[in-house]
Amino acid sequence: MSEQKEGGFLARFASPIIVLATIIWGSSFVVMKNSVDVLPTFWLLAIRFSFAALVLALVFWKRWKVLDKHYLIGGTVMGLCLFVAYAFQTFGLARTTPGKNAFLTAVYCVIVPFLYWIIARRRPDRFNVIAALLCIAGIGLVSITGEDAAAFNWGDVLTLVGGFFFAAHIVAVDKYAEGRDIFILTALQFASFAVFSWIGVLITRPPLAEGVFTGELVFGLAYLVIFASCGALLFQNIGQKYTAPATAAVLLSLEAPFGVVFSILWADEKPTALMFLGFALIFVAVVCSETKFSFLRKKQ
Would you list the domain boundaries of the chain? Predict the structure, then answer.
């Protein structure tokens, strides 16, 4: 398939591919929760992205002739942002529930305009400010609920930090993907992510329990490598390249409700009325920030 035809094909199916990515991510929160309970965070991330990089490198080996220093810089920056985001998200997941982790991660969609303001000097409008206020209110309802409403969950805080770096990753993809092969760039992103993860393993030296690699854990890791990494993250990068930013951001935010659905179905998530209200406010904040409710205004 020629480069022009490939671009047209990917552009045509970019939106459905993004939705598929959010479904995969929604289910992966439960898998990640089960895996992180038995495998130290840096070990989990190092194994997951080492194999993900290897798979993409082998599948797209014919494309490596385009490799240059700009690909290496872009892949490293994207990998670093994603590594920090996943590290905080995964540490947060070990201290909170999969559903809350999924929704709090979704705030990256609201953070993106403010990062663009800092980097590109493009000031956010009133819709971005309203979205930020709605998001803060939603986060409060999601984070401070349950029997002890005064308790503050540090897992939620770590997840929010991860959400910030997911926003930084989106900015990095927009910057480096233009005019470059997204498949090679994604493979380099995974490779640099794996390197940072192994550095984390060497620094922290977390012990591995004897017999930790059970059949269930290996299956979970395989799912994370093939579907949540090689599939969903590649789909995200393709979607950002071939879909309008506002559309892509709204579609990516569907990861959060899918995360809650799978968490209720497969995990021990016990949602409350306040949590659902918080989830709704966060989702409205995302839609407000990225669409400015243009679909509610009459076309002239």
Answer: 12-296
